[in-house]
Design goal:
The structure is a single chain. The protein is of the alpha/beta class and 308 residues long. It folds into two domains: 10-175, 3-Layer(aba) Sandwich (Rossmann fold); 179-307, N-(1-d-carboxylethyl)-l-norvaline Dehydrogenase, domain 2. It is 46% helix and 18% strand. The protein is built from twelve helices and eleven strands. The strands form two sheets. The protein has a six-stranded parallel β-sheet with strand order 5-2-1-6-7-8. Strands 3, 4, 9, 10 and 11 form a five-stranded mixed β-sheet that branches. A hairpin with a 4-residue loop joins strand 3 (50-53) and strand 4 (58-61). The longest helix has 22 residues, at 179-200. It starts with 9 loop residues before the first strand and ends with a helix.
């Protein structure tokens, strides 16, 4: 794909399913993108490009790839897509290569990535809410099965630039004045869906059609909302537990053929992000005096599965 003019230089740090999908779309649109990932990914991409198998097209996209974080030296924008448990260590290693004016956009789960980033670097940092169902069936290949949109915020000149940038690549993006609430809303869906999908080895469709799974999701949501309320988080569009459950079911329907990222990690013998999902709710609930026994049970079972 011929590089177009007036694109900022972009580094995707952690070129897995999320980074591969969004970084791949930016590269396909002509942006100068370098993807930083594991050796198997880099070898595959250097040979033939990244293969995007999406709902709309199937295409090899030429893109630069490297295993070294030094490849991000001098870029204008970093898309941080590593697993949340790797955030702090990755940013420490990335810091010497970051230009002072570079912007870091976290495309990660959880609600506290910006805090972790800015504990190490002084660069402007923002966290996007990511809604996409994608996987990596083999190195260098991205399988997209649902959605593919972002929410960023708050509204600043930098976030308006970022929203316009991804829109050029055909990625729907909305700017929110309440990005904390948006992140917590996504956290609700992740807590309700991810661990159950992983432990039950179930796609979202099967979960949404199972009455016992839906009841379990409702209990998880009840606990997360109690913690959110105690933390005084304003959740956009969620007036009560019924609305929250409807939102979770909507996600399950939109991504019916997907399994959660937690399920994908466990199936590959990798550590998961459960500490930033149900585990975060357990820790925050303890701080606020809110009981979260079901979230604690899911968190514990996933951790035990990881230990295998």
């Amino acid at each position: 794909m011929r590089q177009q003019e007036n694109w900022p230089r972009i580094a995707v740090v952690g070129a897995g399913a999320v980074g591969g999908y969004f970084g791949g779309l930016l590269a396909r649109a002509g942006a100068p993108v370098v993807m930083i990932g594991r050796k198997s990914f880099v070898e595959a991409v250097k040979t033939q490009g990244i293969f995007l198998d999406t709902l709309d097209f199937k295409e090899f996209v030429p893109v630069e790839a490297s295993t070294e974080l030094g490849a991000a030296r001098g870029v204008d924008i970093v898309l941080l897509c590593v697993k949340t448990l790797d955030t702090a260590a990755t940013v420490r290693e990335l810091a010497p290569h970051l230009a002072p004016e570079a912007i870091v956009l976290s495309l990660q789960n959880g609600v506290d990535s910006v805090e972790q980033i800015q504990a190490t670097v002084k660069n402007a940092a923002f966290q996007a809410v990511v809604y996409v169902a994608a996987s990596v069936p083999e190195p260098g290949r991205i399988k997209h099965v649902g959605r593919g949109d972002l929410v960023i915020g708050p509204e600043t000149e930098q976030t308006k630039m970022l929203a316009a940038l991804v829109a050029r690549a055909g990625i729907p993006c909305r700017i929110s004045a309440n990005i904390d609430g948006e992140l917590w809303t996504k956290l609700i869906w992740n807590c309700a869906l991810n661990a159950i999908s992983a432990l039950g080895r179930a796609k979202y469709r099967r979960m949404s059609e199972n009455p016992d799974a839906r009841q379990l999701m409702e209990t998880v949501i009840h606990e997360v909302l109690a913690v959110a309320n105690a933390a005084r988080v304003v959740l956009p569009g969620i007036a009560d537990e019924k609305a929250a459950m409807a939102g979770a079911m909507r996600i399950a329907t939109q991504m019916a053929e997907a399994m959660s990222s937690t399920a994908q990690d466990l199936s590959r013998g990798k550590f998961t992000e459960i500490d930033s999902l149900n585990g975060f709710i357990v820790r925050r609930g303890t701080e606020l005096g809110i009981a979260t026994p079901v979230n604690h049970a899911l968190f514990t079972l996933v951790k035990l599965a990881e230990a295998r």
